[in-house]
What does this fold into?
Amino acid sequence: MSREQKIAETFVELADTLVADFDVIDFLQQLTVRCRDIFAVTDVAVLLAYPGPQLYSPAPCDPSPTLAAVLDLALGEGPALDAYRTARIVSPGNLSTAPAMWCDFTARAREAGYTYASAVPLRLRQETIGSLLLLRATDSPLPADDLTMAQAFADAATIGLLHARTLKAADTVNEQLHTALHSRIAIEQAKGFLAAQHNTSLDDAFAAMRRHARHHRLLLTDVARHIVDTGGLPLPPAAPMRHYPADGAAND
It folds into this structure.
């Protein structure tokens, strides 16, 4: 699949929120997977301030302890927080020359091997609900055109999330977002189990989980927890039983 095809497919996925079984965790996870693939970044994470006033990180691509440690600091300083607060793209260049106010984030990111960190806001008009953090461990920054495209993805994702909140039961969407952090842990554990079991990559394992969840209209989180608990994919929900009148019974 060409890069242009991947970009077009991503926009279609980000618009697919007006379905009865919309899964917020699946939506955010797929956003990070697509960004890592299309933009050739080392790691990607969504940081949300929705619902609530503080940023938290529900959906990184990689569960490694090094990334987790960087994200812990990114919640309080660094490009992701600045992108959220200013509603603008933040791309300061090499982390060796990052602003002094990011000292803890920068030190931890460089220890983890990252050389560049950029972020784009998740925004719609006057409302900003978080940011998308893009980390690179290369000798060059993310190209300007890729940053522009990342912002377009972030805008589309924000529209999708806000439409889901408006057109569906808001309490359901909010509850999924509140539980997203714990759901992410289960998803990453399940990905690792499937990847080891089938000798495949983490991305392929995630794709298999996602296909199974969508095909059988299950929440991605429920599929992940079933894998962690039982070691296998869950069976599809049983079809409702139909009751037929006994022989000779009158039909209404």
About this structure: Confidence is low (pLDDT under 50) at residues 243-252. The chain has two domains: 3-169, 186-230. The domain at 3-169 is CATH 3.30.450.40 (Beta-Lactamase).
